[in-house]
Amino acid sequence: MRSAINTMLVIAGLICTLTLSAQDQTVEFPQGKLRIRKAFEVIEAQSGLSVAYNEDLLDVNKKVTPPKSETVSCAMEILLHGTGMEAIFQGKLILVVLSEKAQKESLFAKNEKGIYVNMLEEAVVVGYGTMQKKDITSAISTYRPLEKGERQVGCPDALLQGRVAGVNVTASSGTPGSRNRVSIRGIGSLTAGNEPLYVVDGIPLSNTSADAGEWGGETLSPLADINPADIESIQILKDAASAAIYGSRGTNGVILITTKKGYKGAPKVTADASTSISYIPNLKKLAVADADLYLQVQNEAIDNYNRQTGSSVSHLSNPFPDRAQFNWTDVVFRTAFTWNGNLSVSGGSQRNRYYISANARQNQGTVIGSRLDKYGVKATVTSDIRDWLSVGMNLTASHTYSDRVPDGNMGTSILTHALEHRPWDTPYHPDGSYTIKDVDLLHYNLIQAINEQDVYNRNFRMFGSAYLSVTPIKGLKFKTSIGGDFMYAEDHIYYTAKHMYGNSVGLLTDARKAYTSVVIDNILSYGCSSTRGFAMDIMLGHSFQKDASSTASQTGQGFPSSDFDVNSVAAEYTDVTSGMSSWALQSFMFRTTLKYQNRYLLTLTARADGSSKFARENRYGFFPSASAGWVVSKEPFWTAHRTEFKLRTSYGLTGNQGGIGAYAYQALANGGYNYLNENGIALMTQGNRDLRWEKASQYDIGADLSFWSGALTVSADLFQKDTKDLLYNKPTSAVSGFTYRTSNIGSMRNRGLELTIGSELSGYGILWKGDFNISFIKNRLTSLLDDNDIVTTDDYHALKVDEEVGSFYMIRMLGIYQDDSQVPETLYKQGVRAGDVIYEDVNGDGEIDTVNDSQFVGSANPVFSGGLNNSISWKGFDLSLFLTFSYGNKIYQTWTGGLRLGNGEWPAQRSEALARWTGPGTSRSVPRAIYGMSWNSTKFKSTRFLHDASYLRCRNLSLGYTIPPDKSRMAGMTSIRVYVAADNLFLISPYRYIDPEVNTSLNATKMGLDCMWTPQPRSFTFGVTVKF
Amino acid sequence: MKKIMLTPILICLPLLCCCDRNLDQYPHNGISSELICEEDAQLLLTGVYNIAQYKPTFNGWALFDLIGGDIIRTGASGMNTPELLVTMGITPNQSIVASPWNGFYAGLYQINVFIEKIGQLPQSQKKDEMLAAGHFFRGLYYYNITARWRNIPIVTSTIDTDVPQTQEEEAWIFVAEEFKEAIRLGSDFQDKNHVSHQAAKALLARTYLAMGMMKEAAQVAEEVIADGNFALSDFNSIFRGGYNREEIFSFANLVQESSVNMSSYYYTKQSPVGGAYNFCPTQEAMDMYGPDDSRKSVSVDYQGSNPVLNKYCSGDAGHDPLYIVRLAEMYLISAEGQGYPEGLGRLNELRVHRGLSPAAPASEEEFLDAVLDERRLELFGEGFRWFDLVRTGRYEKTVGVDSRYTVLPIPARELTLNKRLKQHPLWDAASDNKN
Predict the structure, then answer these.
(1) ipTM of this predicted complex?
(2) How many Cα atoms sit within 13 Å of A628 on the Cβ side?
(3) Which residues of B touch A674 (CB under 8 A)?
(4) N or C terminus: fewer CB in 10 A for chain A?
């Protein structure tokens, strides 16, 4: 087996042979430093053995100090120390191969000329090609999923959280399969088109959600169909120079996912199985007041009201004093189990290589009734038919099934409805029937909502590509490929007659969506080099993509019983819709890389994109870029040993069209506006032929430093990104007939600093590796309409020049009136008294109103965020601790049910009830209880509900043990590893609710709202990985 | 040699898909609005009916009841008295204020487009009838907007929508002119779900009442009463989908064609057809019908122990029509317009028809009380109460709230986006400061 791996790795390259005798014989070296190549020659000359090595893997020009006199085997060990290579003696041959340690510890292998060099590591996937890492002049980050200690995630974007500087990943919720918000270098756009472009093995992945969109809750992530275990590496194109090759789609950055491939050698099998338990931590933070405290607050509120208005509202009392308080959250949340299994086989012959894998995952949600099952297979086959002709194909097929529960701001949302009950409310009557809203309960009966619904999504996905590549003459390559992404999704939303939304007769919405995306690429590339150290690569390409979707949905009602759940038996159809839409993109690409003496590097790219989303006259956009690099440490004047230094700089243009509708420029008369079953049409969209590409220009300056042959690496980037012609659904006065119009409305600037530090130390058999990254990003709107405008994007946010996008705009709470005499007369007249919230009267007119008194009060963007990973391995043990952090971002809690304190019969959050104002000096942050007045709670969006959402999270802690190779070999395995891991082990945050990170809005202008989505669970995983 | 042969063939491949024509993509559910032609006129007309019925939303059609003092909010909202519902519900930020504003103006865009497009057609009777529908809807919409916000921008074109506010008096005159145009061009009554000159006349009577032109109101109302197409009918036949001669114009409001479900807001889950039960009548409203009143059971009911407004009976399971104008209102307008004692006849005709004894008010004041009480009983839940109280100056006293609630504030969002708009003086924070 091992020889197979070795043979596999000793591919191409120079093989030198000489002959002599045995490996134990002594060789003698001349004094002083020698190049490795020279040292090998000494060995070969004296021992008669021949040393075979691959120059791509081993820097034979590296100078070493050989021993004076030593046996061949010891000498080889000394010479190869620190290179990640080892010597294997086979007859008269000494094979210098990648050491097993270095192969497996890809964790410890990264820098371009450093110690552990690996062919795979060297190649960096860039758009429409690969480049050597040492030649990269733009800001590209690479993340390779760890072989040991990686998070167990269902979705690949979660792998990136906290791992890469400049990439901010926030989980939308703890619901299995939900989308993450991924932003690269801050906010790219004002519209929903803020997500990076994902390209999997060259195929742009459609960003349409994995469901048919009929369910009002969270949408499902389209990335969940990729099995994280199949991922070889993830490249993040951060600056314009790297992303400009994706032109109109590159503004938000590009994430290139490269999946695993097979290599020449005997079949390698990897199997992994793990099981997790997870639960929602810290639920007690949301505890509601018991009956005594609740009544105390409510009646105090009524007393306060009666006293100040002279009314005589009567007290509230407990109608069921003997009833034990029902704990809704205990019933609704559970400890959930997840099981995950992966199996992959890879290998290949001289000309054919393959990788096949299968994955199954069954993921229970922490809310009863929620689950996500996923099954996927993948195959990659490549074949070199001739030396000049190769073909390949790559296909992923997957199926997910998810049972969904109402979440967040849906009418029957889980978390809020687990809390919004009076202490004596229970889900059932004594006869077993459900208690119902407004009759027995304040709000929806959550148990009823979950039991009486059958809501699931089924998703079938297939994506992949096939290519044919020809090399007619040396250096010239032509590659044609066709790729596709096909999705079929089915939403089934069934409410029985007993469900609150079942219209008393049963209601079924059956929705289907078919999405196809086809892309045809043709790439011509040519590379050459001169003997004088000049090298050039050129790429020319054409790409055509067409996406089309069709949807169909019927809603029927009236079912004989809950056993019937297809619309063919429905008594009537209340809604039948179907839709079709499509868009197309044609692109021309160009890239050239010029290199002189490996020291001076220049890359130029250009792309022209034409999109069907724009009127003909504005259809094409041109996106050029240039980047340059200088490897300072290769200059003759550079004297620092084992230290490398490279400077990079880049400038480029990228575009964006993601957030606008397929036909946004067209003024349309739409059908479907029928009356009395006669056809009617209406003019529903105004259109805007002036719509044009949103364009961003970006500068980047970066430096890569490596000390002590890579023991410490530092990489820093400064960038400035200016986006103009921002596309936005500009709010317009409703008097115009429309409340918004898609327009190019302004420009903004993102500035940032990214810093990545990596280090590794070894000694006493211990290997330590630390990775730290941090990014500071500052966003600012630089122009907006006529520059004085404040554009409110929702009830909580607004846009204004010089403010950050995602800024909260609301009324500021200053404190609590401690005495009636402090209340201004105008407010006193409205019933404001001591104990009520003091709001800042910005315009000083004595009134508090949203139009005149709102102000900017912080934003949902962090000042800085990042991650810290530490791994230690010793003998067979590996321990890894991964922390993520975010500082300076704010979050608004939209759920105020527990904080109304007597305004309505809402239950009170226990902590809030206890902290309420009851007299002068009792509280400066929590108001009094008051009946019949919304002043303190729902009347205004105010900073009372805006919180600091900074956090430090222990994202992952894992401990693994690899059974010694000799023992695993006895079991017929090459490697056996067992591991335990804890995800989300602890969270340090000032946020009063559970999860400061939940954020379902993908829209940058509406971020940072906690609608009480299901928080991220805490999970403990146990698993085994075997290889043979 | 083979590779030399193959390469040019492959390099030609991109040319196959390299075509700009592929970048022209058009939708499947619409056509370019420039392509609309004469044959599409009927389609546009149908579209206007559809838009006109649903754009104002439930809040738009029901608001005069919701804040009329006879309805309260259910559940834990804390708006469980008419006073709290009004003071907490009517603010520049609430959707109860904003959604009708947005809805009425969105509908007006369609109506204006329609009038513009139809106006370009050659003269014909069909064209007149279509224009009549356009002016009828425009009158209906501006009636609703003026009654709520008073000084309002009157937009009559799709090209120039940036217009200043019109004073209330002028706005009412505009509304009346729209109905007069609809009367002039309109066809004779065909069915209750389509616009007729009678329907326009009925709304003109209502507009005159709002303008305080009592004599004219009575006169026009009498013309409608005298029309042979209509007669007072049984409440059951009106509000339970039977044949009746009382409805002059109602929107059909079919489930597939409209999103306004009145009944769901009023019915409880305990009804056989379900309901969300957001609003319910006050106890006083429940008790206002006498035992002999034939309107009682159709107007209010109890589901379990919960009081409900009973005029819309489909619950969650279906939709009810939106009653825009029916004959009984003409009797009441005529009575009010003629005044005491001339109007007593029409008032009592209606009362007797509803199973009540004739009223015998002794003074003009008592007579107006009697008419308003009758309007309250007759038209409960049909969108009248608030404006009846406001136009007769009784709102503040009846509901017990500040005078600012006799007009709706212009939504905050509009004030931010439209610099031409000025908040009504009653809602202008600056004017409060002066007090």
Answers:
(1) 0.91
(2) 4
(3) 46, 50, 256-257
(4) N
